[in-house]
Amino acid sequence: MNGATSSLRPSLAQPCDLRLGLRANLAQFSLLVAVNALVGGMLGQERTVLPLLADRTFHLSAYTAALTYIVAFGATKAVTNFFAGTLSDRFGRKPVLVAGWLIALPVPLLLIWAPSWGWVVFANVLLGVNQGLAWSTTVIMKIDLVGPARRGLAMGLNEAAGYGALAATAMATGAIAAHWGLRPQPFFLGIAYAAFGLGLSVLAVCETREHARAEAALHRTPANPDHRSELATRQVTRAVSLTDRALSSASWAGMVNNLNDALAWGVFPLLFAAHGLSVARIGLLAALYPAVWGLGQILTGWWSDRIGRKHLITAGMLVQAAAIVLVAVGGTFPLWALAQVLLGAGTAMVYPTLLAVIGDVAHPAWRARAVGVYRLWRDGGFAVGAVLAGALADAYGLTAAIWAVAALTAASGLVVALRMYETRPQE
According to its UniProt record, where is this protein located (predicted)? Predict the structure, then answer.
């Protein structure tokens, strides 16, 4: 049986054929792209509908209270990311991926039947676990498969699939909600995504942990002792969080990136609704930003393999800041649409490139844990952003919250420019 056929019909623990490279693993890589699209779709079912449910169905008047679901999602996902890396090193990638999909199954049902806002918050706790386990694992598995040469492209394709599906689902749920109402029809998509994601993960995805071990055997001994193969989890955590200038700068930039994504998710729809936009138009704006972000990552991930990581990240953060300012000063649909396009373009420059930095620097023996720590910080930005934006919006109004996040985003870009070193492998 050839490698392409066997990679599509593995048992629960069967490893993929042990070859490194995108072309050598194209069938399994493509399957993981499809699985991650379903992971993104699970998140996309909420982007348009949940802020409006908080306002129109549950009548939450305080912005801080209305954004509690993002706090619950972000905090849970951040912690789960950390454990996803450790668990995938210990037990393998595939069991962690399957566990993530099992936890996703009740999420759309809870959103459909929720009699109180607490049910919605609990659904987002489960969604955070799903995203932390499933998305982290697909990232790790793709890095395992492709090896060092095309890491930026691999991350661009992975994130493009996830956020492209998020955008398409956000637009679809907005159109469904405009026609049939906020519940239950928009969440039927989530039921289908969870079923397909679990089925593909159990029946078709194969184990990739041995690919990381094979790459580790070929890995050069690093000059920096902080990058050697024998690192305890606490040492990995310290390097990614504080001591390594590239890894820790990436963690800070990732946190701020998702801080402004929390703003786009939770605050922008409320601002648009306050200016009288229809649900369908709000859904279009909610989809435009992740659509540009998702599709753009195919180009920017490849581009970072050619020109390097640092300057692309710096430029992307500054473009994001400019886009957020345009949301604050704009008051019409065309201006907000332009802002969403710019925000998506800036995020596309940043998102896969940050993951590529982690893959560049981290030794294959502890790379999964490094990805987990990075994603702990990055997705903690959802919780920080929701709390910060909600508190500022309650105290000073929605526009003040948007200006504050724009300033933080610009500052993050300058930190990367001054502190991060270039990590792209030299050919």
Answer: Cell membrane
Alpha-carbon gap, residue 135 to 77, rounded angstroms: 10
Class in CATH terms, 21-213+231-419: mainly alpha
What value, to the nearest 5°, has the Cα angle with vertex 99 and ends 95 and 103?
Answer: 175
Hey, is 268 helix, strand or coil? helix
What is the reported pTM?
0.78
Domain layout of the chain by residue ranges: 21-213+231-419
- Count of positions (residues) in the chain: 427
- Chain segment 215-235, per-residue pLDDT in tens: 766 655 554 555 556 678 889
- Terminal Cα-to-Cα distance of the chain (whole angstroms): 34
d(CA 96, CA 63): 35
Query: How many whole angstroms separate alpha carbon 58 and alpha carbon 189?
Result: 22
**Element of type H or E holding 375:** helix 367-396
| Residue 2 φ/ψ, nearest 5 degrees | -80, 165
Backbone angles phi, psi at 319, to 5 degrees: -65, -40
Task: Report whether 342 contacts 141 (CB < 8 A).
Answer: no
The DSSP code for 426 is P
Return the amino acid letter for 122: F
Q: What pLDDT digit, counting tens, does each position of 236-259 carry?
A: 999 999 999 999 999 999 999 999
DSSP for residue 149: T
The single residue listed with the structure tokens 């990367």 is: 416
Query: Among candidates 339, 349, 351, which has minimal Cα distance to 285?
Result: 339
